[in-house]
Design the sequence.
């Protein structure tokens, strides 16, 4: 029987692109006021170039969107002439602005109701994310029991480590867990490789074939999908 359901967060429970755009704009507004040399030399589109540069210099941080973001800021501030001391302070403050805005998500329709329904049915709920959204800051701590992030685990899905740590944390076997996510590779293939059942969240109606146990196009369908899998598992 299924005892635990884990969820990806970004693009599974909310759309992430508008969240990141808002967070980037908030960060750049702060930098314009407090570190004008940065925004005089860099625009939002230059974050891609800065990301490439810091990953060339430090490929070992590629699993962590938080470390990448902090490294982008540090590298860019130094490049435009800020001292090491000022760079450290400005990078930390700018990241605080970014990460605070990054938690301001708008849930997909039916997201909280679906989680609440599953919680009431007695399922243990978890979050497994490659991003740096935090269940406590986005307003899900009352519904989701635990969270693993690539920042902390040291590997991004579909690497098995996050799924393995989840199984160790819960004391469950793969057959007792369903993983829910939008990414065919990171979520569906990653979980299935360990024998975890999967539900693909296809909000945008993509026509690709994804070998999940169930597919939903609206989060209102997810409780029924869990029930069907649980019946088959039983």
Sequence:
């Amino acid at each position: 029987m299924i005892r635990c359901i884990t969820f990806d967060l970004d693009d599974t429970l909310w759309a992430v692109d508008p969240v990141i755009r808002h967070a980037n704009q908030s960060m750049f507004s702060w930098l314009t006021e407090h570190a004008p040399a940065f925004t005089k030399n860099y625009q939002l589109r230059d974050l891609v170039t800065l990301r490439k540069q810091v990953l060339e210099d430090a490929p070992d941080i590629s699993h962590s969107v938080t470390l990448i973001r902090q490294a982008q800021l540090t590298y860019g501030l130094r490049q435009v002439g800020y001292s090491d001391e000022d760079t450290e302070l400005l990078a930390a403050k700018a990241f605080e602005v970014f990460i605070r805005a990054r938690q301001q998500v708008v849930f997909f329709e039916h997201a909280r109701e679906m989680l609440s329904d599953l919680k009431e049915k007695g399922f243990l709920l978890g979050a497994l994310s490659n991003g740096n959204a935090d269940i406590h800051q986005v307003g899900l701590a009352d519904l989701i029991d635990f969270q693993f992030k690539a920042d902390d685990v040291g590997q991004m899905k579909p690497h098995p480590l996050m799924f393995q740590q989840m199984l160790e944390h819960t004391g469950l076997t793969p057959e007792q867990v369903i993983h829910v996510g939008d990414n065919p590779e990171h979520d569906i293939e990653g979980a299935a490789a360990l024998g975890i059942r999967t539900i693909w969240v296809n909000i945008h109606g993509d026509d690709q074939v994804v070998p999940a146990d169930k597919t939903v196009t609206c989060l209102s369908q997810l409780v029924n999908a869990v029930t069907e899998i649980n019946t088959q598992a039983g």
